[in-house]
Design goal:
By secondary structure, the chain is mainly alpha-helical. It has 31 helices and no strands.
Length: about 650
């Protein structure tokens, strides 16, 4: 992956290498780790972000039987990456829901990947190997993959990807069944962590061509055929999950073949640009409008094709440059717009899409830089100083970029500063504000999101849900009705529609909507709680209790299910039985003011006024503006049971 003039330098081995480039891998790992952990310090204290809840092991899968479900139950996890979710399962058993642990392990995988990159480039006699490892470790384009917990699938799969490549190269030098088996196992591990690693067999063929000038059917292709078959299976599996389980079915359905080619060219140049000039990196980039009938848009694929042609004709004796381009573009293939991928709904590009592909372009950049320095007559300290400035700049940029991943507010607010037309950032920020109790404030963001993308069912549902909470069910109803018309299998929208029906006094319709939601997603507890409460208000107490029991089987530590069960028993004047369930709710969620207040009311009904007083005081400690608890304490005070302080 170096210019033609440096071929002799590769043959001479260490002549082009300074003392520090020959460090043993252990020292390389420690050096890269020290710099990387420093650059990523702001990320370590970051919260869980966007879809982290769908990856960090949920309550259903935290047991040993849950581990079995991860491997053998389709749909138990968001995508079928069982080795990734096994890693999350192990991590959850170690540090539970503490995000710091996940961030630390993600940084560790990233450092290991950078170290393995150094080892691989040395194995291929590519100059500037340590520089490439440092650039990869500290480049701000990598921040999204490292600071976002969900993208452990990137960092961990790259460890297996590079490990497999290294073992394969050793196998090519000294063939043995053990080495072939080890390389294959590492490749399978990579696929079971993230299927984008399916490009590895083709990458190894390019590497073989670079080395030998040809590809051997017997020595290369035949041995990699089983890997290619595994790649096809993994790719098809992920594609099926993306389209049927995640919602990527129509992500690129509006593009014809010519538009796909235009898009692919534009994506490749975009990623090259971000590697060379990493500014304005953002979580959601603007989504381009692709139209193959617009002449200027053909600049992207045309210039790319021209570059490949020039490199092919001009550098016939040096295959490294063409190999680097082929490796970069080939590894990017799953993200070039030919396959439905859910994030394409928001944007055709994302920093984490080029995490593995960037290895090859960074190797080219580092090798070219290294060779350039060997050709300059500058003093060694000047060259060394230039490299330090480059590395320090990348580290500073990554440190700064990590700040965007501190929490959901900083993630979406920073995105909207750089990309105000991001409807998905408006949608997600509105959802966050609603979940934090700022429901009124969330409305403006959700309305912007709806105006920017009127027919997105998640936006219709979220806005309808917020309007329901604000008691504006009449406004919510048409939005939710439209959502279920657009996506008849959308369980969340049926649940929200049920709430609207209840708010409009149409209880039977509400019950039917909740039942439909449960039918579509039997593992989701919220519609069961809503159905149970609706049935209780219709006087169907036994049926209501059945729903709460089911909810607790699905989620044993669900305080709201215990609370509602207790309230239903209270409706039947079964106060002692109600007390048991509400006490359970307090144990599960001790800092919930409403649960404490409910427990206090039950104690009052049983005549246990001292215990009631304790709960009302605890309610006010949690929420000093809780009027119900304050009025209850006033009643107790007027009865002479407590003193006025």
């Amino acid at each position: 992956m170096i210019p033609k003039q440096s071929t002799s330098l590769i043959r001479e081995g260490t002549k082009a290498k300074s003392q520090w480039s020959n460090w043993p891998l252990g020292a390389v790992f420690i050096f890269i780790a020290a710099l990387t952990f420093f650059a990523y310090l702001p990320a370590i204290s970051g919260d869980f972000l966007w879809d982290d809840a769908g990856h960090v092991t949920n309550a259903f899968l935290q047991s040993w039987s849950g581990l079995s479900r991860i491997w053998f139950e389709i749909g138990a996890t968001q995508q079928y990456y069982p080795l990734l979710h096994t890693a999350f399962w192990i991590e959850h058993r170690i540090w539970g829901d503490m995000p710091e642990g996940y961030h630390l392990i993600n940084i560790l995988w990233h450092v290991m990947s950078a170290t393995l990159l150094v080892a691989l480039l040395r194995r291929l006699s590519i100059p500037g190997a340590l520089l490439a490892g440092l650039i990869f470790a500290l480049h701000p384009v990598s921040v999204e993959s490292v600071a976002w917990i969900s993208e452990q699938k990137n960092t961990l799969s790259t460890v297996f990807y590079l490990g497999s490549a290294l073992i394969w190269l050793n196998f090519q030098e000294e063939r043995s069944f053990g080495r072939y088996s080890a390389a294959s196992l590492f490749f399978i591990a990579a696929l079971l962590t993230k299927s984008v690693t399916a490009t590895l067999p083709m990458a190894l063929l390019v590497i073989a061509w670079r080395k030998n000038g040809k590809i051997s059917w017997r020595n290369d292709i035949l041995l990699l055929l089983p890997w290619m078959l595994l790649s096809i299976v993994a790719g098809l599996t992920t594609s099926w999950f993306e389209t049927t389980q995640i919602g990527a079915k129509n992500a690129i359905s509006n593009l014809d073949l010519m538009s796909h080619l235009v898009l692919a060219g534009r994506i490749i140049w975009f990623y090259i640009g971000k590697l060379l000039w990493p500014v304005n990196l953002v979580f959601f980039y603007p989504k381009w409008t692709i139209d193959s009938s617009v002449v200027w848009e053909w600049i992207y694929p045309a210039t790319l094709a021209g570059l490949v042609l020039v490199v092919t004709l001009k550098y016939k004796s040096n295959r490294s440059l063409l190999a680097a381009i082929l490796l970069f573009c080939g590894t990017l293939f799953p993200a070039l717009g030919f396959i439905n991928v859910y994030p394409f709904i928001f944007s055709y590009v994302a920093d984490h899409f080029q995490y593995q592909a960037s290895l090859w372009m960074i190797a080219l950049i580092a090798a070219s830089t290294w060779h350039g320095f060997t050709c300059l007559s500058w003093a060694r300290w000047v060259k060394f100083g230039c490299l330090i400035i480059v590395i320090a700049t990348l580290a500073w940029l990554s440190w700064h970029q990590c700040g965007m991943y501190r929490n959901l507010h900083s993630l979406y607010e920073t995105t909207l500063e750089k990309n105000p037309d991001s409807w998905v950032a408006n949608l997600n920020l509105g959802i966050v504000l609603d979940e934090e109790g700022e429901t009124e404030k969330s409305l403006s963001y959700l309305k912007k999101a709806l105006a920017q993308k009127p027919d997105f069912v998640e936006t219709l549902n979220s806005l309808g849900n917020v309007l329901n909470k604000l008691g504006r069910s009449a406004e919510a109803f048409p939005l939710l009705e439209k959502a279920v018309q657009l996506q008849p299998n959308f369980a969340a929208a049926y649940n929200s529609l049920g709430v609207s029906f209840m708010g409009l006094g149409r209880s039977e319709k509400g019950i039917s909507a909740f039942e439909r939601s449960i039918e579509l997603d039997s593992k989701w507890v919220l519609p069961r709680l809503n159905l149970g409460w609706a049935l209780a208000n219709q006087g169907h107490f036994d049926l209501a209790v059945e729903q709460f029991e089911q909810a607790l089987k699905l989620q044993p530590n669900l305080a709201e299910a215990e609370l509602k069960w207790g309230l239903v028993l209270g409706m039947q004047d079964k106060i002692d039985a109600a007390l048991y369930h509400v006490k359970r709710a307090v144990i599960l969620q001790p800092n919930d003011a409403e649960i404490r207040y409910t427990l206090g009311r039950l104690f009052m009904q049983l005549g246990q006024r001292a215990a009631a007083m304790d709960q009302f005081e605890e309610t006010l400690r949690i929420d000093q503006n809780h009027t119900g608890a304050r009025q209850a304490l006033t009643v107790l005070e007027q009865a002479g049971l407590i003193k006025n302080n």
